[in-house]
Amino acid sequence: MIDLNPTAYAPYRDPRDYILSWTDAIWIDRGLGRLRDHYSQQVKVHTAYGETYDYDHVLQNSLQKFAAFPNGGGGHGEDVIWESRGPEGFISSHRVFKSGTHTGYWTYGPPTGRDWMSRTVAHCLVQDNKVLEEWLVRDEWAVLEGLGLDPYQVAAELAGASPVLGAAMTAGSDSGAFAGRITDPYAKGVSGSRPARHKAECDRITAMFHEVWNDKMFNRVPEFYSSNIVCHSVRMKRVQGIVPYQIELINLLATFPDGRLEVRDIAVLDGPENGLRVAVIWLLRGSYCGVPTYGPPTRTPVNVLGASHMELRDGKILREWRIYDEIAILAQIHAGRATG
Question: Which one of 23, 194, 199, 208 counts the least CB within 10 Å of its CB?
Fold first, then answer.
């Protein structure tokens, strides 16, 4: 933390303690009004459904979630991968394992009384001790599956307008979190300029995405991943070993065979709690023209906003958590069918 002033995360011990303590203060203690002390009034929140640009949206959406899942709390913080963004700021990539019981009204309808589990990554830019910008990636399919709801029906409703965010879903949108190109994520991503360190790790991760994801060189997986790789993905799926990992990734990319992945932000932390970890925000642009994972292909343009957390050991990825929102994918496909 030599390049980060303590005022950036005061009065807490470090950025990890800052994020976890604030999560408990807001969600566990039910201090919802404390959000105004944690978020900037002009906070920008980017999701797969659109963007919101002020604190009131954060408060209103959080209040509704409180009502729907009163025992949900803030979830269990599995990891916080943080990295400085200037002397008074840092990026915090917070991976959360969430669970709850649907006992109140929610965006998706009346209470079901059922339990759910999912993972979320909140990739937050903190400046001057407040969250200024956030890239939020949820595994919403896992939530709906737990509640016994039809993902296709929910996605069709979201295709018109998202009641969660109040922002219209636009298939293939090229604005907000999706706008612009990142030429060198090692130097500067969507969260700003990175400190000039961990170049080898950043180059290795970007090379992996380019060679394996974009060039479809799945034979290169053993070059980047440990033979004991464990990958946790959406719908609470888990695969272990090189071949299962290759198959799981091939199934994803075969859905959008013309897709190209862009690395939009990187944060690297080498800490005593879990060793060397890398957080990545990525965007997969393609069209739904491949295998019929989500029904008959439509050739609809689709943007997949995703987050990956990776633990490295001896230069290779030992564990990976990959999160993206399949309901947002379905909504874009449905919007394409409606306009086609």
Answer: 199
Element (H, E) at 193: strand 192-193
Whether residue 255 sits in one domain with residue 141: no
Secondary structure (3-state) at 185: coil
**Residues across the chain:** 340
pLDDT at 116 over 50: yes
Alpha-carbon gap, residue 115 to 102, rounded angstroms: 6
List b or e across 185-202, with b for residues whose CB sees 16 or more CB atoms inside 10 angstroms: bbeebbbbebeeebeebb
Indicate if 184 and 112 belong to the same structural domain: no
Q: Which two tokens stand for residue 42?
A: 């002009």
Inter-helix orientation angle 326-339/151-160, to 10° = 60
Domain count, the chain: 2
Rounded CA-CA distance 205/282 in Å is 12
Q: Give the domain range for residue 71.
A: 6-159
Backbone angles phi, psi at 59, to 5 degrees: -65, -45
Q: What is the pLDDT of residues 49-76, one digit of tens each?
A: 877 778 888 888 888 888 898 887 667 8
pTM above 0.90, yes or no: yes
